[in-house]
Amino acid sequence: MIYKNLSKNKILIVTVVIFSFTIQFVFGQSFTDVSINHWAHNHINKLSQNNIIGGFPNATFKPNDSVSKVQMIVMIYNLVNRFDNVENIDRVVERQKYILDALRVDVYAPWAKNALAYALDAEIINYEELNRFFSQGTQTNATREEVSIYLSRALNKGKEYSKVIALPYIDTELIRASNVKYIDFLLNKGILNSNGDGYGRFNPNNTISRAEIASMLSKSFDYLVDNSHKNNLNNGINSDNRNVITEKKLTMKSGVIEFIDNNSILIKFDGNETKLFQRNTDVEIFVNGKKSIFNQLPLKQQANVTFTDEYKLVKIETTTSFIPDIEGIFNAVTPNVGFDLVVLRNGATNNTQTLKAYHRTKVQLDGANVSLNQLKSGDMIKLKVSGQDIDEIVATSKIKTYQGILQKRVESLQKPLITLNISGESITIEAKPDVRVRRNGGSNLVTNLKVGDVITLSTEYEKAVNIQATSVITRNVGRIEAINILKDSSSITILNDNKSETYNIDSSVYVKVNNIEKDLYDLRLDQIIEIVLENDEIIAIESRDDLNRTQINGTVSSIDIGSKYFVLEYLDRSTNKIVFKTVYYTNNTRITSSLAQVPISIYTLRVADQVFVIGDEKFNKFTADRVLLID
Question: Which residue numbers delimit the SLH domain (predicted)?
Answer without folding.
Answer: 27-90, 166-231
